[in-house]
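Tip: read the tokens left to right.
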């Protein structure tokens, strides 16, 4: 009986290990972020073609209240800073992936998109920002979560941005796994870590497991996706080990104000030990 239990335990361990590999890793992309000047070079690693319906996909994001429409296709917009265009230079897409830039969205709008501002979104797009949900799962809405998140049918030739804040307990390596249709670009803390202008073929299919660095505290990740035609989706998950350690914002259904307040407090949190050290330092400097 003991041998049988040990054998069963071994099978469980092997199964869990296999599931972990099916979810993410080992990474086939290392050495990031992309070097300056190479931001639009595609990833040279061999694609994985790994379908992961049960991975811990992130479904709640923060972003514009509508996409950048009638773009002419992602091949034309991939080198354009649409955030800079929409904000009249008050914010850039690189800044948007930093805490200082993200907090600017409290007042900085994208109404400068003008004729490109999404028409027909529900509620109407005004160039503001809000928390959006990608649905019940990564394949929800038939693999069209970029258009359906705005209450619209399938759209062609448009770009979207979606942002999360990953609060890490310490500096750590993580594996980031995107699935997209069509052109994905991802920044973390002001550095571009990913560029791929090819669709993955399915909303739960991952081509690249990308090793990234998360700093201790709040890490801002901005995910831009340019859609050409047909399906439109932008999904992402981290490896299971990372998901078990970090906190991710926004939370489902949050308002813009609550989300910005929560992430603003992440950078100012002080532990009792840090507070005591700070007070002692103030006392010494006052002498």
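Filled-in amino acids:
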């Amino acid at each position: 009986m003991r041998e049988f239990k040990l054998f069963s335990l071994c099978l469980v361990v092997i199964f869990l290990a296999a599931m972990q590999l099916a979810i993410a890793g080992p990474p086939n992309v290392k050495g990031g972020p992309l070097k300056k000047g190479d931001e639009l070079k595609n990833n040279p690693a061999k694609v994985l073609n790994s379908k992961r319906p049960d991975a811990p996909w992130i479904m709640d994001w923060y972003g514009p209240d509508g996409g950048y429409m009638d773009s002419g296709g992602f091949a034309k917009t991939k080198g354009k800073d649409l955030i800079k265009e929409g904000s009249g230079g008050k914010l850039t897409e690189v800044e948007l992936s930093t805490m200082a830039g993200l907090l600017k969205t409290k007042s900085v709008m994208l109404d400068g998109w003008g004729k490109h501002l999404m028409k027909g979104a529900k509620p109407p797009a005004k160039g503001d920002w809000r928390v959006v949900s990608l649905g019940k799962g990564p394949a929800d809405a038939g693999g069209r979560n970029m258009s359906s998140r705005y209450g619209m049918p399938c759209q062609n030739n448009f770009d979207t941005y979606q942002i999360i804040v990953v609060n890490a307990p310490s500096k750590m390596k993580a594996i980031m796994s995107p699935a997209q249709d069509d052109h994905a670009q991802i920044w973390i803390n002001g550095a571009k870590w990913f560029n791929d202008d090819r669709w993955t073929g399915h909303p739960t299919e991952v081509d690249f497991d990308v090793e990234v660095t998360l700093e201790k505290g709040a890490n801002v990740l901005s995910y831009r996706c340019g859609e050409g035609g047909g399906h439109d989706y932008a999904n992402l998950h981290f490896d299971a080990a990372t998901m078990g350690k970090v906190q991710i914002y926004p939370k489902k259904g949050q308002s813009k104000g609550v989300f910005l307040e929560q992430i603003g407090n992440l950078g100012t949190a002080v532990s009792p030990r840090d507070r005591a050290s700070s007070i002692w330092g103030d006392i010494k400097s006052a002498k």
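The chain has one domain: 46-269. Residues 2-23 form the longest helix (22 residues).
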